[in-house]
Amino acid sequence: MAFENYTIKDIAKALNLSTSTVSRALRDSYEISIETKKIVTEYAEKVNYRANPIARSLKERKSNSIGIVISEIANNFFSQVIDGIESVAYDKNYQVVISQTKESSERERLNIEHLYSRSTDGLLLALSSETTDLSYLEKLIERGFPIVFFDRVPNQINSFKVIADNRQGAFDAVQYLISKGKRRIAHLTSSQRLSITNERVEGYKNALIFNGLPFNPDLVKYCEYGGLHQEEIEAAIAELVKEQYDAIFISGDKLSTGYLQAIKKHPYFEGKDIQIAGFTNSKVVNLFSPTITAVRQPAFEMGKKAAELLILQIESKYPIEEFETIVLPTSLIKE
Questions:
Q1: Counts of helices then strands in the chain (DSSP H, E)
Q2: What is the C-alpha separation between 137 and 101, in angstroms, rounded?
Q3: What are the tens digits of pLDDT across the range 22-78?
Q4: Looking at the predicted structure, is the pLDDT value of residue 86 above 70?
Q5: Where do the H-state alpha helices sit in the chain?
Q6: In the prediction, which pLDDT does 296 show?
Q7: How far is CA 287 from CA 172, 283, 296, 297, in A?
Q8: Residue 309 has what pLDDT?
Q9: Please, what's the b/e burial string for 15-50 (b: 16 or more CB within 10 A of its CB; e: otherwise)?
Q10: Is the pLDDT of residue 151 over 80?
Q11: How far apart are CA 253 and CA 237, in angstroms?
Q12: pLDDT digits (tens, 9 = 90+) for 178-229
């Protein structure tokens, strides 16, 4: 049997009421009597009436939906961020629409333009590793479209931003490796275009300098797509083994797991004790072999805070013109 979609007009006709009366009764308006509301709501429930969200969004110019654009949903960190976002969004009656870029700036732009054209109320965005052109994002913000950036953020756009304390997290990880007697510490990281990359490289350098160790750029290897492609990690390792490093600091989830996979089949690492510390939000980090000293980001809290700031903008009666960057602390989970 085909599903029959009842409209307000159908309910009004069946009850011999005006469409405006039915609409107000369903919205629990004070203008409608309790008795009429009861008749309307009972009939609506009987016929399984559901409001048309598209029609409502066109009328109210509000869709009660927010968009999320990230590099990859399968990434442990981003999946935990989404959990935090949803914990706020659904409590505030907002639906969440998620899209991923796979680190493509073109795909990122297409996703954002689609979400904007579909009357999404606002956007939560972590930039792709390819992104260089921010002009279209600035134009959207100028038009009044709320955007909150998280994790991977642009320095030049005035907006709310939520990040982890990447410098301190990197510093703590490298400091721990040094405390274990390591002196030639390599660094495997993502695209130089990303804010998180630069902040973590800075924390890495600061820890070396603090301990009187030289910074050697040959020990730093950048993976353009952050480990999304395993071959870029393997190419970086092929260069690093020439440097005879005794420990490594890795700056991301994909890079950390990809590195562990790569060294298992590389003859250089047989019998070597190269200690590892890295950013990872994996829930099974204790099962990694070899073990990793993990820098954990408060992903759930980051998503929650970003969603709160976005909904604050969406529901504000006046344009918000003063913004801040929220910096959340990381934690070091020792092996």
A1: 12, 12
A2: 15
A3: 888 887 778 889 889 889 888 888 888 776 554 554 445 577 999 999 999 999 999
A4: yes
A5: 8-15, 19-26, 34-46, 53-60, 76-89, 105-117, 135-142, 166-179, 195-210, 230-240, 253-263, 299-315
A6: 96
A7: 22, 9, 16, 19
A8: 98
A9: bebeeebbbbbbeeeeebeeebbebbeebbeeeebe
A10: yes
A11: 16
A12: 999 999 999 999 999 999 999 999 999 999 999 999 999 999 999 999 988 9
Element (H, E) at 218: none
Please state the length of the chain: 335
Half-sphere exposure of 169 (CA within 13 A, CB side): 29
Give the residue-averaged pLDDT of 285-302.
92
Dist. CA 63–CA 65, nearest whole Å: 5
Burial of 212 (0-12, 13-18, 19+ CB in 10 A): exposed
Q: Is pLDDT at 327 greater than 90 in this prediction?
A: yes
- Residue 95: phi and psi, rounded to 5, are -85, 155
How far apart are the C-alpha atoms of 168 and 174, rounded to whole Å?
A: 10
Please name which of 311, 293, 335, 323 lies closest in space to residue 89, comparing C-alpha atoms. 311
Our measurement of the distance from residue 205's CA atom to the centroid of its chain's CA atoms, rounded to an integer in Å, reads: 26
Structure tokens given for 298: 């408060």
Residue 112, CA distances (Å) to 72, 104, 198, 200, 248 in order: 15, 12, 25, 27, 36
Among 266, 268, 193, 265, which residue's Cα sits nearest to residue 223?
193
Q: What six digits make up the tokens of 260?
A: 């562990």
Query: CA 112 to CA 131: how far, in whole Å?
Result: 13
β-strand pairing of 331-333 with 275-279: unpaired
Phi and psi angles of residue 134, each rounded to the nearest 5 degrees, phi first: -110, 5
